[in-house]
Specification:
The chain is an alpha+beta fold. It has 3 helices and 8 strands, in the order H-H-E-H-E-E-E-E-E-E-E. An 8-stranded antiparallel β-barrel has the order 1-2-3-4-5-6-7-8. The longest helix has 18 residues. It is globular and about 35 Å long.
Length: about 130
C-alpha cells in the first residue's frame, strides 16, 4: 500500500473508532424502565416482579430522576465513580443531600442491569418515549 493511501484509510477509520467508544455516562442517557427481576427467591419473585414494572431511571446530562413504587420519586445528580469489567459504580446525590451508590451493567444498547447484590438484579430497558 502506498503511504498516501495508507493515511487515507487510517483517517477514514478514526471517526468509526471514536463513534464506538462512547463514555459510560453518555450510554446511560435517556429513560430506563423496569422489565424484569432476576435471581430473587420464589417468595420474593412475584412481589418484586410487580414492583419492577413501576421502576424507572431517567438520566439527562448529570441529572437523574428515579421512580420506585411505594417511594417518593427522587431527583438529583449522579457521577460515574468507577468502571470495572463492564460494571458502572454510580454515586447519586439526592436533592435532599443524601448520597447513595449503586452498581449497573450496560448489557447492550437497549438494556441496563441494576445489580442489587446477592446475585439479584433488575433488568431495565431503554424507553423509546
Amino acid at each position: 500500500m502506498h503511504r498516501p493511501l495508507a493515511w487515507l484509510v487510517a483517517l477514514a477509520l478514526v471517526p468509526s473508532t471514536l463513534a464506538c467508544s462512547t463514555s459510560p455516562k453518555r450510554q446511560l442517557q435517556g429513560k430506563w424502565v423496569g422489565e424484569r427481576v432476576e435471581h430473587f427467591s420464589p417468595a420474593q419473585a412475584t412481589r418484586a416482579a410487580g414492583w419492577v414494572i413501576g421502576t424507572s431511571f431517567e438520566f439527562e446530562g448529570s441529572r437523574v430522576s428515579i421512580a420506585i413504587p411505594a417511594e417518593t420519586p427522587r431527583e438529583g445528580t449522579f457521577e460515574v465513580m468507577k468502571v470495572t469489567e463492564g460494571t458502572l459504580s454510580l454515586a447519586f446525590l439526592r436533592s435532599d443531600g443524601v448520597r447513595e451508590t449503586a452498581d449497573f451493567r450496560i448489557e447492550d444498547d437497549g438494556h441496563l442491569r441494576w445489580q442489587l447484590g446477592d446475585g439479584r438484579s433488575v433488568l431495565l430497558r431503554k424507553s423509546t418515549n
